[in-house]
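Reviewer 2 asked us to include a model.

Predict the structure of this chain.
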Amino acid sequence: MTTRVAPGIVVEAHRLVDAARQAFAREPRPRALLADCARRLDQPLRVALAGSLKAGKSTLLNSLVGQDIAPTDATECTRVVTWYRNGPTPSVTAYAPDGATANVVVRRGGGAHGLTFDLERLNWNAPGPREVDHLEVEWPAAALAHTTIIDTPGTSSLSREVSRRTARLLTPDDEEAEATLSVPGADAVVYLLRRLDATDVRFLERIGSGTAARQGASGLTGPLGVVGVVSRADEIGAGRIDALHSARDVASRFATELERTGLCQAVIPVAGLLAFAAETLRQQEFTAFQALASVPVDELTAAMLSADRFARPDIPLPVAPELRAQLAERFGMFGIRMAVTLIRLGVRDSATLAAELTSRSGVDELRSVLDVQFGQRADQLKAHSALTALARVLTAYPGTSADQLMPRVRTLLADVHGFAELRLLGRLRTDELTLPPADLAELHRLIGGSGIAPHLRLGLPPNAGPEAQRAQAVAAVRKWRERARHPMADQLTTLACLTAARSAEGTLSMLPPAPEMRMGRR
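Predicted model (C-alpha cells):
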C-alpha cells in the first residue's frame, strides 16, 4: 500500500503527546505508554488480518506480500498474534509476556505448507520456561515498507484464550482496558469472512462500537478502517470456472448486510490460494498447464472431478501425478481450470498467465481498496490510534498539568474531518441514509471513497485543469450545503451532506487560487 502524506493531524498529535510526556516526566508507567504512543506515530500503518478459524488469513497475507513468509498449516504459531514488519534480513523472534525474547527457527518444506516456525525448542534470553505472548517477523519486503501486517488467531477458536488474543489486540473490553490501559493495537482491520454468521457480526460490532459517537465514557475507540474480505472465494463455487462470480454475489449480499449497519467500508471476494500461487508461478507449472490445455475438454473435465482423482496415477494425463498433486495443492481446482482456460484462449508465457491469474483472484482489487481506504489515509488512521491512547493515559492519570490537554484531544477525535469521512464511508448503505443512488455515489466519491486526490473526489479526469476542478468543487459545496438545509432531511442525512460539503471545501482549498484572486492580492 502507498502512503499519501498529510502531516497536519500527525504533527498535532505529536505535539499533544510530547506535551503529555513532559507532564509525566517523573512517572515511569505513563511515560512509557506515551513513548510508545509517540513511536506509533512514526512507524508504518498497522493493519490486522482477523476472522474466524481457517478463514485463510495467513494465505492472504502471503499473497498481499507476494512472498511465502507466513505459515499456513495449523501449527502452534497460528495460535498467537504475529507481527510482520519490514527488515533488512529475515528473522523471527518470540516474545514472552514479561518481555523475554527467543530466536525462532524457520523451517521450509515442500507443498503448500512450505514454511513453519518451530516453537517447540525456544532458548529464552532469561532463565525459566515461558509461554509465547506474540511473534515478530522481520522480512525484506516492499509491501511491508509502509504497512505492518498483524496476523491474528481465529476469532472462533475452540480455545477461549486463543480467541481472546485477537480480541485483546483489536477490541479490549472496558474492564481489561481500564486495568492495562490497553487500546487497539491495529490502526485498521481486514476482516475475512467465509460465511456471515453471528460470531463474525458480533466481533465486527465490537470493533465498530467505538468508531463513532457510540464510544463509551472511557473514551476507548476501535480502529477506524474496516474492510471485509470474502476469503477462499474459489471454494464458494466448488472450484468451478465461474467460482468468483458466485463469490461476488455472496460478497454483494455480505456488503449489503454489513454496510447497512456500518460495520465495513467495503467487502471484496478474494481467492487467496490462487493469488499467492500466481505471484509465485514457476516455469515448470506453466509448462504443466500448457500440457493440460492440450487434453480434450471432456477428458480433462472427467479427470478433474476432484483433487484426489486429478492426482491419481491411473488417470492418463501428460503431467506426472506428483506434479498434478502439487498443482492441486498450490492452485486449487479453480486455479487449474482458470489457468488451462487462459492458455486455451491464447496466453503464451508464464508472466502473462501469472498477471491474469492474479487479476482474477481478486487480490489486485483488494490492494486497490486497501490503498484508497488505508494507505492514502495512513496518517489519519495512525493519529486516531495515538490520540485514543493519549486520551486513555490522561483519563487514568488525572491531577497533572496534562489535564488541560484533554479538551483538545477529545475535540480532535470528534471533529477531525478525515475521521468523519472514514466513519461515514462505513455507513453509506445504511437504511437510515435517505439519499438517491446517484447522490450516494457522488457522496462516496467526494469523501474519498475512490481516492483522496482532488480530481478523484470531484469525478474529473486526471488531466482536468485547476479552473475545471475549482468550478466542480464550488458546485459541490453549494449542492451539499443546500441538501443539508432540506427541511425533510433526517439527522444522519444532514450530517452526511455537511460532511460532503466540508470535503468539497477541503478539496477547493487544495487548488491554486483563481487568477482574479491572485491579482487582487497584488
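The radius of gyration is 25 Å. Residues 321-344 form the longest helix (24 residues). We have added this to the supplementary material.
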